[in-house]
Design brief:
With about 120 residues, the protein is mainly α. It is built from six helices and two strands, in the order ααβααβαα. A two-stranded parallel ribbon has the order 1-2. The two termini are about 25 Å apart. It binds a DNA duplex (13 and 13 nucleotides) through helix 1, helix 3, helix 4, strand 2 and helix 5.
DNA sequence: CGGCTGACGACCT
DNA sequence: GAGGTCGCCAGCC
């Protein structure tokens, strides 16, 4: 059964109370200098179909947070909403960790930085 | 209370 | 191969 159908028919709900805390916890295991994706986080939490909800969880984070949200990029290695102020902040934070971000908003050598 | 949007990604035309 | 669609939708007009 595909993850899709599993999610559709599945008896167990992944999203719910404490979901954002699980995202937080998991994200904190990603070391500086590495990046991960929404889909990978979602998959680690149970199903890639909730990738979007990982996005929601991060969007809900307070401005000043100890959660390394900047280490999350999309499945193609692009930073959040290229061109936005948030994307620029993210690029600055990543470069501070020796992760090169191109002008197009994509992490250079994404595959090797990717943390699983 | 209904409709729309969205820090995404996989499946289906 | 390139759009369109929907997911466990969840929050915000």
């Amino acid at each position: 059964m595909s993850p899709y159908e599993e999610a559709r028919h599945g008896p167990h709900r992944i999203v719910g109370p404490g979901f954002h805390a699980r995202v937080h916890e998991l994200l904190c295991t990603v070391p500086a200098g590495a990046v991960t994706t929404y889909g990978d986080l979602a998959g680690a939490l149970g199903s890639r179909t909730v990738a979007r909800h990982v996005g929601h969880a991060l969007a809900a984070l307070p401005e000043r947070s100890d959660v390394p949200w900047h280490r999350v990029v999309d499945g193609a290695g692009f930073v959040t909403r290229p061109g936005s102020a948030a994307a620029r902040r993210q690029a600055v934070l990543l470069r501070r960790e020796q992760v090169v971000v191109g002008r197009d908003g994509r992490v250079a050598d994404f595959a090797s930085h990717r943390f699983v």
